[in-house]
Design brief:
heterodimer; A: six-stranded mixed sheet; 9 helices; 10 strands; B: mainly alpha; about 85% helix
Chain lengths: ~270, ~280
């Protein structure tokens, strides 16, 4: 497997304070009702346009890390800045510009939401209270669906879609808001074999064309590893490795929780 | 005499239409936002408040509203502060409200099943006044306006509160708004079926429509219509068989839900999937 390390090195070399898009300073997060901290004293800086892979064993704190960055976890210690804004005080503004795809989000059969409804919801935060979605919002939602290749599902009830199709809808929902950052939590877990080839390619394309900063949490290290700039290993709520994919591979391949059970699809 | 009976019936019918519609509408949000336990608690808060009103010779509507909204305002913030699920707090407030209601009812002068106690327990639609109708019409218009203006936020929260937050919607004020609105609608509908049965009107219409529809806009339109139809039918059934109005409304509403469940395509699909 070859790695696109040139890009990584170039980005690291060009780092200026202007390029910092996500900054975590000594951040600890506790889940509601839990006593144990889910992530502990984490320091992390992510540059604009980076494509970062977050790997680690189950319950290591990977999902917590994503939900701490977009500020949907209510309690945390330390300081989190995204787009130069403090997430604690400007959470809503920050989240309007972050596309988030949660882990294993499944809509049950019979739930009363169409696919287009769900994708359009991605734009609601930007529309503002008391306003209704405009034609332009609907066009943006349709464009996001087209981009993912699910435009024919627009009128279908979400609950009637397969797990892979629902995952694509969630990705379209995240893209409908024209985000500057994409936070994807296990985005390949429910995809069928064909989509497992298509979606990583699409994410890479979007990342490059739309100047997105992308963080992907996954167990399956083979997907896109050759396309990412950086790998972060999270274990027991701490970042135990932060470096290039080349250096990360020996570490994660030997780890039983992060090694793919399948061979790479491309 | 005939004219008087006609006026009472007219008010009862209008009250059934308005309260049935409102309960059916608010019920959709309560059910879909998983606030059912809060709904129970508020219903019985309104019941306790109305009982206090009867005991102290105060307007039961006022005390009912005070108790229902206090329950509504306490549950959310206490749950948030105590880091507990709203259901836990609700499970504590619900029996407390019931206990208070029964204590207050024993304090009503001339104890026995006096008419005031009976009104609080079972409702008394024939005692609807013109002022009650004015309150209901105002509440009807206000609720429709609120739902229209914040529909997209409510829609997103009903789908997933977590995703709505992730998309930049501040969900807390909207959830509190629905809790408060439910408390007010319950209180103003109390004369229809009484404090013990009121929550059936909140959940039955929404649960009935959700057996069929896969489009939330249709659910929000059809549920109030079912709410209206069941309350009006219940009123006529009670007149025909000379039985309590509140009980008849709840029985009709439950029969409608049972029929919906019987023919529910969603239930059938679930059964097939389980096989």
């Amino acid at each position: 497997m070859s790695f696109n390390t040139k890009n990584t090195v170039k980005q690291y070399d060009n780092t200026t304070s202007k390029d910092v898009i996500i900054k975590l300073e000594d951040v600890s997060t506790v889940y509601e009702g839990a006593k144990k901290t889910a992530i502990k004293n984490v320091n992390l800086t992510v540059m604009r346009k980076e494509l970062v892979y977050v790997v680690g064993p189950n319950a290591a704190g990977k999902t917590t890390l994503l939900e701490t960055i977009n500020g949907i976890l209510p309690t945390f210690k330390g300081k989190i800045s995204v787009f130069g804004l403090n997430v604690k005080t400007h959470g809503r503004q920050v989240r309007c510009r972050i596309g988030y795809v949660p882990q294993d989000f499944m809509v049950k059969p019979g739930e009363p939401y169409t696919t287009l409804d769900v994708v359009l919801m991605g734009r609601y935060g930007q529309i503002g209270v008391f306003n209704h979605p405009s034609e332009q919002d609907k066009v943006k939602a349709s464009e996001a669906m087209k981009l993912i290749g699910i435009e024919e599902l627009a009128g279908k009830p979400m609950g009637k879609l397969s797990g892979g199709q629902q995952q694509k809808v969630m990705l379209a929902r995240a893209l409908a808001k024209n985000p500057k950052i994409l936070l994807l939590d296990e985005p390949f877990s429910n995809l069928d074999p064909d989509s497992r080839g298509q979606i990583p390619t699409l994410i890479t394309k979007l990342h490059q064309e739309k100047d997105l900063t992308t963080l992907i949490v996954t167990h399956d290290i083979h997907h896109m590893l050759d396309r990412c700039n950086r790998v972060i290993v999270v274990s027991n709520g701490k970042i135990t490795f932060d470096g290039t994919p080349e250096k990360a591979l020996p570490l994660v391949e030997n780890h039983p929780h992060t090694t793919s059970l399948e061979a790479p699809h491309y | 005499m005939i004219l008087l009976e006609f006026a009472i019936m007219q008010r009862a019918l209008i009250a059934c239409v308005l309260a049935g519609f409102l309960m059916g509408l608010i019920g959709v949000f309560v059910v879909r936002m998983r606030l059912s336990a809060i709904g129970y608690s508020m219903s019985h808060g309104a019941f306790a408040g109305a009982a206090l009103g009867a005991a102290t010779a105060t307007n039961p509507l006022l005390t009912g509203l005070l108790f229902a909204s206090s329950s509504a305002f306490l549950i959310g913030p206490i749950a948030d502060r105590a880091r507990l699920h709203a259901d836990t707090i609700t499970s504590i407030i619900f029996p407390l409200n019931m206990a208070l209601a029964f204590v207050f009812l024993t304090l009503v002068p001339e104890i026995g099943l006096s008419s005031q106690v009976a009104n609080v327990l079972w409702g008394s639609i024939i005692s609807m006044t013109n002022a009650d109708l004015v309150y209901l019409v105002t509440l009807f218009a206000t609720t429709l306006a609120i739902v229209y203006f914040v529909w997209k936020e409510l829609f997103a929260i009903m789908f997933s509160r977590k995703l709505a937050e992730a998309d930049g919607i501040n969900t807390k004020p909207f959830i509190y708004l629905i809790i408060f609105l439910a408390g007010v609608v319950i209180t103003f509908s109390l004369k229809l079926v009484g404090g013990l049965l009121i929550y059936a009107l909140l959940f039955n219409p929404a649960s009935t429509v959700l057996q069929f529809s896969e489009n939330m806009r249709k659910v929000v339109i059809v549920s109030p219509i079912i709410g209206m139809a069941t309350t009006v039918s219940g009123l006529f059934v009670s007149l025909f068989f000379d039985m309590p109005v509140g009980s008849c409304i709840v029985i009709v509403s439950t029969i409608v839900f049972a029929i919906a469940l019987l023919f529910s395509p969603k239930r059938r699909r679930k059964e097939e999937n389980e096989k």
